[in-house]
Amino acid sequence: MAHSLTNGGVNTAAASPASLVSAVHDPPLPQHLNIVALETFFTPLPPLIIPKPHTYTLTEYERTSAAQVAERIKDADIVITTVVPIRASALSATNAPKLRLIAVMASGTDSVDLAACTERGIRVLNSPNCNSVAVAEHVLSLYLATRRSLVPVMRALGEDEWATRGSVMTRAYAVDAPPRSCRDETVGIIGYGGVGQTIAKLFGALDMNIIVSGRRGAPSGGNGDRVPFEEVLQRASVIVVCCPLVPETRNLIGAAEFAQMQPDAIIINVARGGIVGEQALVDALRQRRIAGAGIDVYDHEPASTKSSPIVAAAAEGDLNLITTGHTAWVAASTRANYQRVVQENVERFIRGTVDADRVKA
């Protein structure tokens, strides 16, 4: 269901943080802008403030499928989106000749064909660090639940194992020993942006030892305080994946990497599907090469028991495996941050400046 709103411009004070860079509009933007929001289901839009002399028409869609994108953006000057794929065919000058800006209400922009945008001069701005606290807290919840084997214990209790065997204590053992305490953990963080840094602070407050991974294949000693990737796999008892999905991180962790981990290691992925091999993870859990996993993202989303080996294995219920449905970001603070940043991105783009750290194309 689409909702359209036509509005005039508003005089507002231009922001001038040090990170702003010039964004020359060539050709100049039209005075009246057609703004299309494709996915307000995830985060409702705030009342947009558009600087004078510009006016705008806003068309909002609660949900948009990949098949609907081309039709819905064909007359847009500005598109606001979250996760729906926007591919080269929809971005072509034939389909969307007026398109100048895609404002992504998410940190990841892998759903947008950035090469096609760059070729056409379409600016793509993301929303970094809006969900850092929420994601870090979700990682903590996945860690505690997995390290304490909450799901296996709950399952045993529901099967009356406590009553019939007299104890479910050993169900809390992911390996043949009691679980580690926080102060005995070494947390290896793969991806040290806003989320990774917040995770380090949160886990560090629990007296965990924190190590930050360098890039895979980077030479030893060339990463400053970073620990070589292979060493992180071997040393860490908890591995947290929170890096972007780019060509260098696709299939970053598979069977060979699981083979290097400690037997009581836990892996948590809140980054993107495609970084951790799904079948390789399930195999590692079944063969007890690692002790547990907490997964929030999948190769194919929405994920199901048919599309994801991880979801299917979790449904079978015999592993120390916790799955959530790409919900790590969900929080009231995240919504407020996304609403603030999308307003900044749209307004500053129109004024001719953008935040350098948000530019993805």
UniProtKB/TrEMBL annotation:
Keyword Signal recorded: no
Keyword entries, A-Z: NAD, Oxidoreductase
SUPFAM superfamilies, per database record: Formate/glycerate dehydrogenase catalytic domain-like (SSF52283), NAD(P)-binding Rossmann-fold domains (SSF51735)
Pfam families: 2-Hacid_dh (PF00389), 2-Hacid_dh_C (PF02826)
InterPro entries: D-iso_2-hydroxyacid_DH_PdxB, D-isomer_2_OHA_DH_cat_dom, D-isomer_DH_NAD-bd, NAD(P)-bd_dom_sf
Residue span, D-isomer specific 2-hydroxyacid dehydrogenase NAD-binding domain: 141-311
Stretches assigned to coiled coil: none
Family per similarity comment: Belongs to the D-isomer specific 2-hydroxyacid dehydrogenase family.
Protein name in UniProt: Glycerate dehydrogenase
Record organism: Sporothrix eucalyptigena
